[in-house]
Amino acid sequence: MLRFWFDGNVDGEMVHPVDGKTYSRYLVWHPRDHIEQRTVSPGRGGGQEGAKWFINEFFLSKKTEGWVRGDDAKEWSDQLFTKVVLTVQKLDASGLSLAFQLPGIGAKPVSLTHEWSTTPEGAALVSTMYIGVPNGDDPATKALNSIAKSIFACGGDAEAAARAWQLHCLEEMGNTKFFLPQLYASLVAGDTAGSVGASIPAQ
Q1: What digits encode the pLDDT tens for the residues 163-202?
Q2: Using CA atoms, how far apart are residues 76 and 79, in angstroms rounded to an integer?
Q3: Residue 2 three-state SS
Q4: Of 55, 95, 122, 169, which residue has the fewest beta carbons closer than 10 angstroms?
Q5: SS3 breakdown of the chain: % helix, strand, coil, rounded to 5?
């Protein structure tokens, strides 16, 4: 089911049953931290591999009621956030691999891999993020890694930013159980609005 989610189904909207309003699926996925997502270019042969996704999200937003369209930019000036284009390197039954195109850097020195499997208790997920190029000891690679860490951390502490991302990831992937099974069923049934429930703690 996670493959279904990432196979073009993060795009689009759904009707929230609590207030009857329509929200982007990306916002339902993590109501507090997510802002915007879209497919910039499709993958090869109609699949997702090679596709480019734009994402804009925060890591542990301090605004507990969530982001609101029309917020003044200064309200988010002290936040950890990412606004990048991701390249899908792999999507199959076993997982998803992404490479990050960081602003101002031609290379893709940040990568993220989700590996999933089925267990008797449900889906098991292992997520790994590399910030910088592993095992790079030459001066050029060290310089690239230093820049990558600074951009990822919005100029702050890369270790703290990585920990914030880790918790953000736990929250968003844990939240899928509240809406993904119902969304899958509604799309298979032809209800493209996808009226489902979703819940995640604000703090």
Answers
A1: 999 999 999 999 998 889 888 888 876 654 444 444 333 3
A2: 5
A3: helix
A4: 122
A5: 30, 30, 40
